[in-house]
Amino acid sequence: MGVPDALEPFRTHAADALVAFDFDGTLAPIVDDPEAAAPMDGVAAALERLAARFGEVAVISGRPLAFLERWFPEPSGVTLVGLYGLEARRLGERADHPTSGVWRETMADVAGLARMKGPEGMDIELKGLSITLHYRRRPELEGEVIAWAEQIAGPTGLRARPAKMSVELHPPIDEDKGTVLQRLAGSHTGPVLFAGDDLGDVPAFQVLDELRAAGRGVLAVVVDGPEVPGALRDRADLLVDGPAAVADLVLALGT
Ligand SMILES: [Mg+2]
To answer: Domain 3-98+174-253 is classified in which CATH homologous superfamily?
Structure first.
């Protein structure tokens, strides 16, 4: 299936369609310093234009909402979902997960512990409601970082999830990109597109499979790159080559 054919149902049923994108590795190239990540030129503005025409345009990310808002400041028509569904801004309103607040303190404590007692050389990123333990700069620490994350997860009630060159600690709330996409899809009747590049996107691709089985029009866009897991490529209706190709796709949706 070529790009123009794949996008046709979305153009035809734009007002009922949901188009959702992961952020890192999808809208924004992966960079060594996570704080320096930025969407491809023009893509944020293009998504805003789409939001005016489409049923809903969403960015669903493991990043905190505040980070996503840098690129989609208010007033914005783009739905932003951060921390895998714990934080959200939809139709200009905050829409956080109701039980997420109590976990902020635990996260701060665990981040402090990680700084004092975690493997030396591990980078610690506290995102309010989650913590990412990075070994990107020190790949040889992989085993040690994973072991430390699992060891701290048990007694604190947190859950450890593998991610790209990192481990993330999350509150035990059953939210992921799949539950988020399912909820958003329930607000619309038209086709659903999701684009992602990472293990955290798998639940969203699973929801696309379920929607497809139920007769809904869907498009699974997998963004290829050096770190993309092979199992993810197999889920693609459309395999595109990096964030630059995603930017082209966003522009093509708007034509
Ligand atoms: Mg990603």
So the answer is: HAD superfamily/HAD-like (3.40.50.1000)
